[in-house]
Amino acid sequence: MAILQASENRVFKFLQVNLGRVCSRDEIAQALWGQGWTQKYSDWMIDTLVYRLRHKIPANYAIKTCRNQGYALNKKGYQLEGSDPSNSVLKPVPGIQATEQYLNYMNNPANIRQGLTDLFKAAAGFKKYCRGRLLVINSYSFDNVDAVKAWPGEVVFIHHDERALDLHRRRAEELGLKHVSVCYDDIRQSRLADKTFNLVINDFRLNFNLTHRQNQQMMAQTRRVLKPGGAVLLSVVYGQRKRWFEGAEHLPRPCFPKSDYEKLFVNAGFKIVREFDREEGERWAKTIAVKTGWEPTFTRYLLK
């Protein structure tokens, strides 16, 4: 086994004592930082430490991510306990939760999807903003990692769904991308530091919020973590009024009127620099009109 740092050793021993049991982030934090853990708590640090441990512990051990619950150390011959999300002691994260069907669809390259590659292609005229530290909010498709292989700076994928984090972490490892990392974080109540990112990408994530209040929280926190002079690339599905839409992914999601979203951006302190790719959104709308009986559409914005 590789030599462990003191912090790694504390967490590994704690997981060994609790072999096969799902350990919450709070429990891991207490094992790591002791009595003052609430003042030192950092999701980023816990994710990074677990990532390092996975590469250092013996091959007969494996650290399993248990969605919205924590981590568990498994060993050949042992069974994980309490890994059923229905038994979680944590409150569910507000908003639309991705189904396994949705995850499978979004991670099958043969399916027609809108991903970061499509967004970057549509935003080809905004290359001056595509630099520096990049934040990608709540991506569900592993091949979005492929889209940032050549990004000239650090890339951070955040999500509150452990399944999505695992998908992106594994892909970054497969591609050997040292500039890409993942972090457990809900942007609506983000723990990310102020003025950290040059560009933030929010690709249809507003459509996973159930209420306008959740949209307001998302945009306010996005503004807070953006560096002065930074920009936001944002895609959103909208309708004539608040309605539900469902695409080929078979996941019903809400959308609000376009004017509501634009007012949301302005009230959060953003300037709408450009609206773009609306024609593509209209073409996409025709593919799901049969399912919904009406035609929602999507558009994209560059915000500053």
What does this entry show, briefly?
The relative contact order is 0.11. The chain contains ten helices and eleven strands. It has helices at 6-17, 25-33, 37-40, 43-56, 100-106, 116-122, 162-175, 212-225, 258-267, 278-292; strands spanning 61-66, 70-75, 134-137, 155-159, 180-184, 197-203, 226-238, 243-245, 253-255, 272-276, 297-303.
Structure description:
- By secondary structure, the protein is of the alpha/beta class.
- The protein has 2 domains: 6-80, Orthogonal Bundle (Arc Repressor Mutant, subunit A); 100-303, Rossmann fold.
- It is built from 10 helices and 11 strands.
- It has helices at 6-17, 25-33, 37-40, 43-56, 100-106, 116-122, 162-175, 212-225, 258-267, 278-292, and strands spanning 61-66, 70-75, 134-137, 155-159, 180-184, 197-203, 226-238, 243-245, 253-255, 272-276, 297-303.
- The strands form 3 sheets. The chain has a 7-stranded mixed beta sheet.
- The longest helix has 15 residues, at 278-292.
- The N and C termini lie far apart (48 Å).
- 35% of the residues are buried.
- Residues 77-90 have low confidence and may be disordered.
- Residues 1-75 bind DNA.
- This is OmpR/PhoB-type domain-containing protein.
- Keywords: DNA-binding.
- One of its GO terms (biological process) is regulation of DNA-templated transcription.
The portion of residues forming beta strands comes to 15-25%
CATH topology of the largest domain: Rossmann fold
Mean pLDDT: 86
* Main sheet record: 7 strands, mixed
Q: What is the CATH first-level class name of the largest domain?
A: Alpha Beta
By CATH, the superfamily of the largest domain comes out as Vaccinia Virus protein VP39
- Gyration radius (Cα, Å) is 20 Å
Provide the CATH architecture of the largest domain: 3-Layer(aba) Sandwich
| Low-confidence spans | 77-90
Keywords: DNA-binding
Domain OmpR/PhoB-type: 1-75
DNA-binding region: 1-75
InterPro entries: Methyltransf_25 (IPR041698), OmpR/PhoB-type_DNA-bd (IPR001867), SAM-dependent_MTases_sf (IPR029063), Sig_transdc_resp-reg_C-effctor (IPR016032), WH-like_DNA-bd_sf (IPR036388)
